[in-house]
Amino acid sequence: MKSIYILHENEEWIVPLREAFDKLNVPAKEWFVNEGHIEFDTVPENAVYYNRMSASSHTRDHRYAPELTRVIDKWLGLNKATVVNGNGVIDLEVCKISQYAALQQEGIATPKTQAVVGADFIVSAAEKFNTWPLIIKPNRGGKGLGVEKFNSLDDVKLGLRRLKADSPLDGIWLLQEYVKSTEPYIVRCEYVGGKFLYAVKVSTEGGFELCPADGCSIENAFCPAFEDDKAEQQQDKFEITDILDNSPLIKLHEQFLAKNQIDIAGIEVICDESGKWYSYDVNTNTNYNSKAEIKAGVPKSGMEAIAEYLVKVAEES
Ligand SMILES: Nc1ncnc2c1ncn2[C@@H]1O[C@H](COP(=O)(O)OP(=O)(O)O)[C@@H](O)[C@H]1O
Ligand SMILES: [Mg+2]
């Protein structure tokens, strides 16, 4: 069997995956990707590589880790190595507009969205967009940081200084219609090996006050790997659900993943008051909430599914 390399930049997130490999009695090597030297003109080891790079790496001081991942992905691809979540998937991870284009190409609804480069264009763009409430968020996002909800043009004007001070890494702001759901939750659909694993409801209560007055950043509230103390007080913040198990949306997501060579992902969706589902965030680096998995009694945890999938790829490639 080929060696398995896990490319990542966050020790904390790797722990449950390490445990899943231990359970299988398979050693997986870890490749910490932040800074380094890539000998692009050499031939990489003939192994299986799994890209777990996250768009939020800059929040852990790993500013250029996605850029380095792109270099590695190109190097591995050039040499025909097997890369799980390779083939340019990193470019989707760090660009929501690319995600929306790819989702729409598969007939998947995304919230109405426009893009702005240059803070001086935000107010006029918001005025023209004229959809309230309005979400303004970074195109290169992560962990909900910088996601804000505005109720009026005056609010946008008031928030402009803050938006300018915290401009997105790639300089692109997205203006997006706020999808109002009847019940306060979003759903994250998890896929491993391109196939649906399960969906998890994430409560938008409590930590999810997108009001500018509260600072508006959602921070870790939507990261299944973390449940901070505040979240701890809320019962069942993450709850595995079967509401989408028989939905045609799952098949469409699977088609989208296959088309874009994405093997492993968590796709966030939200249902509006009329019952229409919108897909708005593709996390090609995904984490799972073990408490919710245990509570639901899933036959296989997310990390176990990933480890088993990687072993299968390593045996067959
Ligand atoms: N258009 C929207 N309508 C309603 N809620 C949204 C919208 N966009 C983002 N949110 C909320 O903000 C959270 C973070 O936004 P998201 O687009 O997932 O950014 P990130 O890539 O940082 O996770 C979402 O999980 C959702 O709860
Ligand atoms: Mg998200």
TrEMBL record:
<dbReference type="Pfam" id="PF08443">
    <property type="entry name" value="RimK"/>
</dbReference>
<keyword id="KW-0547">Nucleotide-binding</keyword>
<dbReference type="InterPro" id="IPR013651">
    <property type="entry name" value="ATP-grasp_RimK-type"/>
</dbReference>
<protein>
    <submittedName>
        <fullName>Glutathione synthase</fullName>
    </submittedName>
</protein>
<dbReference type="GO" id="GO:0046872">
    <property type="term" value="F:metal ion binding"/>
</dbReference>
<keyword id="KW-0464">Manganese</keyword>
<dbReference type="GO" id="GO:0009432">
    <property type="term" value="P:SOS response"/>
</dbReference>
<keyword id="KW-0067">ATP-binding</keyword>
<dbReference type="GO" id="GO:0005524">
    <property type="term" value="F:ATP binding"/>
</dbReference>
<feature type="domain" description="ATP-grasp">
    <location>
        <begin position="100"/>
        <end position="315"/>
    </location>
</feature>
<dbReference type="GO" id="GO:0005737">
    <property type="term" value="C:cytoplasm"/>
</dbReference>
<dbReference type="InterPro" id="IPR011761">
    <property type="entry name" value="ATP-grasp"/>
</dbReference>
<dbReference type="GO" id="GO:0018169">
    <property type="term" value="F:ribosomal S6-glutamic acid ligase activity"/>
</dbReference>
